[in-house]
Amino acid sequence: MRPIRPTLAAASIAAVLALAATACGPSEDNAGDKPSAPASQSADGKITIPDDLKDRLKEHGIDLDKWKNGEWKNWDRDKWLREAQDYVNPIIEDLWDPDRMRDAKKPPEKPVDNEISGDEGVTDPTPAPVKAQAVNAPYHSNAAEAGKVLFDGPEGSMVCSATVVKDPANPGKSNMVWTAGHCVHAGKNGGWYRNIAFVPSYNDNAKSTSELENTPKEEIAPYGVWWGDWAQTSEQWISQGAATGGQGAPFDFAVIHVTPEKGGTGKSLEETVGSALPVDFNAPTVPKIDDMTATGYPAAPPFEGQKLYQCSDKPGRLSIKANEPTMYRIGCTMTGGSSGGGWVAKGQDGKPALVSNTSIGPVTAGWLAGPRLGDEAKGIYDAVSKKFAGQ
User: By the 8 A CB rule, do 140 and 273 touch?
Assistant: First the structure.
């Protein structure tokens, strides 16, 4: 196809997939900081919060007990922690109960209200829509690495998608999850979202929304609820990310390190679900990729956010700004809620690897775009791995 440099109209692009991507990448002076010790569970079942986490909250005038009893709902500007090193996410046991998980359907999305230009970058013709296909249940047998991200923002409980990825520092025992930046941080006009948790194989048996009303938590979250005890995204997302215009989208990626809500069995996330994908930061160029598969839990109509879907298509290129990396783009009818879901293709070694994540798409839901993962993404991935090396 002949490359074109179109002007993309406002109605054609939306940060519909939680494009409030937020950069939480480490700065030079905190990239090597040790992470908070994960919350531990005592014999009587109570969660013990590490002192350093309490101290970091106190630095911002936040009392941990008040936070867990509802102060986290205070989104006043001075209470919305913004900087990369300010990430805190105390476990609030059983906050994500079955009803709250089921009712969290809102993607962090807003339609674009200004034009996006291809500038001097290369943008291929808009791909034809590809109908999203339901993943066969049980999901664990067909997409074990996939899951749902739950979190709270000023407008209520929200959802994204994510993927279990390998951890170089802990082979076979990864607790790392890949998602979009806007699924953890609100970008230039906000800060870190709260109560961030990952549920692998959410609704594993693909029950309908009505059926889930009487389904116990053990079935909705068969591999448990895993809280994000650390997260990082790009500094570009933190400083530029916005819900309009596609700003920050080429850097809309994040890594979450997780810990089980109630202590778990001592097994890592990777051991618990039995799988994790490698991440390829040097994927083949677009012309050399036959197809990419995007996976996620679309929540905006006509979807309800309870079931897992996939789209496969040969990728094209989308340029938001000439001086920023060109994004991948595929035809796909998934909507908001699928943000952050992994894109898988054959890597340089010919084996399946995560090469991108869902970032933006049009209001009309005919295609999706995801960032190309390069040095910035690898730096975040390596930093999170290093923080938890040997743990």
Answer: yes
pLDDT greater than 50 at residue 284:
yes
Q: Output DSSP code: residue 11.
A: G
> pLDDT value at position 50?
66
- The phi, psi pair for 292, rounded to 5°, reads -125, 145
Q: How far apart are CA 39 and CA 263, in angstroms?
A: 8
Distance from C-alpha of 89 to C-alpha of 70, rounded to nearest angstrom: 13
Q: What are phi and psi of 211, to 5 degrees?
A: -65, -35
CA 9 vs. chain centroid, Å, equals 26
Q: What is the mean pLDDT of residues 196-208?
A: 97
- Please state, in angstroms and rounded to a whole number, the distance separating the CA atoms of residues 333 and 61: 44
Q: What residues pair up with 277 in beta bridges, in sequence order?
A: 165
* Confidence at 96, pLDDT banded by 50, 70, 90: very high
Nearest to 327 by CA among 118, 152, 167: 118
State the pLDDT at residue 109: 60
Give the Cβ contact number of residue 389 at 10 Å. 10
Token pair belonging to 61? 């005038």
Instruction: Give the chain's length.
Output: 391
Type and span of the H or E element at 227: strand 226-233
Beta bridge partners of residue 389, listed in sequence order: none
Q: Quick one: tokens of 94?
A: 């059983």
CA–CA distance, 310 with 296 (Å, rounded to integer): 7
| Cβ-based neighbours of 201, under 8 Å, separated by 6 or more | 138, 139, 140, 143, 144, 146, 147, 222, 223, 273
Residue 24: what pLDDT?
31
Contact 308, 133 (CB under 8 A): no
Distance of CA 349 to the CA centre of its chain: 25
Average per-residue pLDDT in the chain? 84
Whole-prediction pTM value?
0.87
Report pLDDT digits (tens) over 129-179. 999 999 999 999 999 999 999 999 999 999 999 999 999 999 999 999 999
| CA separation for the pair 76, 5 (Å, rounded) | 41
pLDDT at residue 116, rounded to an integer? 43
Q: How many CB atoms lie within 10 A of CB 128?
A: 9
CB 286 within 8 A of CB 328: yes
Q: Which amino acid is at 369?
A: A
How many C-beta atoms lie closer than 10 Å to residue 71's C-beta? 14
